[in-house]
Amino acid sequence: MTIPGKKVATLEVPLRWGDMDAYGHANNTVYFRFYEEARIAWLTSLQLGGPEEPTGPVIIKTSATFLKELYHPATLLVETYVDKAGNTSLDTYYLLRDANSGDVYSEGYAKIVWFDRKTRTSAPLPDTLRALAAS
């Protein structure tokens, strides 16, 4: 898969020993945690969606394609990309790479919906995110 959109952030993360499963490689849920960590770090850098704010992101759809087994020790780069923005949603994509070799371990996707925490309904996507997707 070719990752669509525009790269907006890169986060370096270590693979921890505890991320390994009984089969001796990183458990599939760990990949989703890396995507989540990258997404939250990126939104925090934009000062958007913090827990004290009235609106913020929720994920309504996510997926991953696992391309290569991931073993400890490893230092990883999680690249975040944005693509189509709707009135209340934004498509985000992720590449999980080895920080040294550049090998790609997985490709991921998450559809973010901006959410009003009081009314528990969708809210307009912040202009900052809409502009990033448009550029």
UniProtKB/TrEMBL annotation:
Keywords from the UniProt entry: Hydrolase
Q: Which Gene3D superfamilies match?
A: Hotdog Thioesterase (3.10.129.10)
Is-annotated flag, keyword Hydrolase?
Answer: yes
Source superkingdom = Bacteria
Matching entries from InterPro entries are given as: 4-hydroxybenzoyl-CoA_TE, HotDog_dom_sf
Which class of enzymes does this protein belong to? hydrolase
Which molecular-function annotations from GO does this UniProt entry contain? Answer: hydrolase activity
Q: Cross-referenced PANTHER family, in alphabetical order?
A: 4-HYDROXYBENZOYL-COA THIOESTERASE FAMILY MEMBER, LONG-CHAIN ACYL-COA THIOESTERASE FADM
Q: What is this protein called?
A: Thioesterase family protein
